[in-house]
Design brief:
Radius of gyration: 21 Å
Mean pLDDT: 91
Strand content: under 5%
Order of helices and strands: HHHHHHHHHHHHHHHH
Largest sheet: none
Distance between the termini: 19 Å
Structural class: mainly alpha
Number of helices: 16
Length: about 400
């Protein structure tokens, strides 16, 4: 795997965070000539497809594709074609929103992901059954999630953007990206890190419950647009199955997790701890939202929605990705810039999550707004961008130094 791939991933993440910071500032002082909605589309696409997708691309190849197969040119070519698609979305979404060019680059990214799924399905060699099953399920969820994207055109043409069908298509894509493709992929990688040993029957039970729960919890966002009570009860069953799956997993792997954490550096423990705590918190929030009144309110109060998305994206997914990067020494625990950058990033994450959920509670109890909320949220978001800037710049400097050494002292 190419070292500069990781630099590209972090550069994408930094740019996505910069867009997010600008979005936060626009609540404080609107910027003339910048369309908030267009910029938000650019921010979300680059964060999901430029950071998480590209980082999973790198890590899956590094961990599961045999070393000799990694040398094939197709992986490098596919990486750069996919990055071209990311750059196209990065530039065009903030400028035009959903328009011909941005849709073209989004479509290119989808076809690249299909080809990637085919390559990994054929060439990946996970050493254990749980890793193989989780990885392949992640790839299937990735492909299934795109069905929602293909339905957007007909939804607009037939019923319009304000229709329930259009909104459900978006929620379908997001649900199976975050809770399917992203989560199952990082768990497959995590199982590989902890060298998971579990009885196959017990794993199959955990896996079956987890997959069913992932599918059934789609009912919650569907219930926001279709009022039939059956969706509420489907979500209830899904959340309870997810809880049972989580309990079963902890019961069967608790001792292995303790051994694994005993081998980690303090920074690695912190990062993985954040990821696992965020995952527990996510399940807890889903349990709380089983209350009918809160189920509807969770969608109506935007602060809760953004806080929940960032909890999943920055807390769980990014937490695991940082952990993998540290363990594989793409980031160095002894490097002051890498360590400081991650710590600054985590400070920003915790600060913004507290502000988002606290403001959501203020709105829920109809007590108005936090004093200087938008300004505080902007200031709290600065460490996210600064932390990523520190990491990205240092990775670039290290890459340049390595290139200079290679040129001066060729092997």
């Amino acid at each position: 795997m190419k070292k500069h791939w990781i630099v590209i991933c972090f550069a994408n993440f930094f740019i996505a965070s910069l867009m997010g910071l600008l979005l936060r500032w626009m609540y404080v002082a609107p910027i003339e000539g910048v369309n908030f909605q267009f910029l938000m589309h650019g921010h979300s696409h680059v964060a999901m497809l430029g950071w998480v997708y590209m980082m999973l691309y790198c890590l899956i190849i590094y961990n599961f594709v045999p070393k000799e197969a990694q040398q094939k040119r197709i992986y490098n070519r596919l990486f750069w074609i996919t990055e071209v698609a990311v750059i196209g979305m990065m530039l065009d979404f903030p400028a035009q929103g959903y328009a011909f060019v941005s849709i073209l680059f989004s479509t290119l990214h989808i076809f690249c992901s299909y080809y990637f799924a085919r390559l990994i399905w054929k060439e990946a060699k996970p050493p254990t059954f749980p890793e193989k099953r989780m990885l392949r399920t992640a790839l299937l969820f990735m492909v299934f999630s795109t069905f929602g994207v293909w339905c957007l055109g007909p939804a607009v043409g037939l019923l319009g953007k304000s229709s329930a069908f259009y909104q459900i298509c978006i929620q379908y894509f997001l649900h199976f990206q975050f809770n399917g493709w992203f989560l199952f992929a990082v768990l497959a990688l995590f199982f590989q890190q902890i060298k998971l040993k579990i009885d196959e029957k017990k794993f199959r039970l955990f896996y079956t419950l987890f997959v069913i729960a992932t599918i059934m919890t789609l009912a919650l966002p569907v219930s926001w647009f279709l009022t039939n009570p059956v969706f509420y009860w489907i979500n209830v069953v899904g959340v309870l199955l997810q809880l049972v799956a989580a309990v079963l997993f902890i019961q069967n792997t608790g001792s292995q997790l303790r051994v694994f954490f005993g081998t980690l550096s303090s920074l690695e423990k912190t990062v993985y701890g954040f990821a696992l705590f965020s995952l527990v918190l996510k399940i807890g929030i889903q349990l709380v939202v089983l209350l009918p009144e809160l189920a509807q309110m969770s969608h109506q109060i935007r602060n809760f929605v953004i806080g929940y998305i960032h909890l999943t994206m920055l807390g769980i997914i990014t937490g695991f990705l940082f952990g993998f990067a540290l363990q594989h020494q793409f980031l160095n625990t002894k490097n002051a810039f890498h360590k400081g950058g991650i710590q600054v990033f985590l400070i920003g994450f915790v600060t913004t999550e507290i502000l988002l959920f606290l403001q959501g509670l203020y709105l829920y109890f109809d007590t108005g707004a936090l004093p200087y909320y938008y300004l505080s949220l902007f200031i709290g978001s600065v460490p996210l961008t600064v932390g990523l800037l520190i990491i990205t710049v240092n990775l670039l400097i290290q890459l340049k130094r390595k290139q200079v050494v290679t040129q001066n002292y060729p092997i």
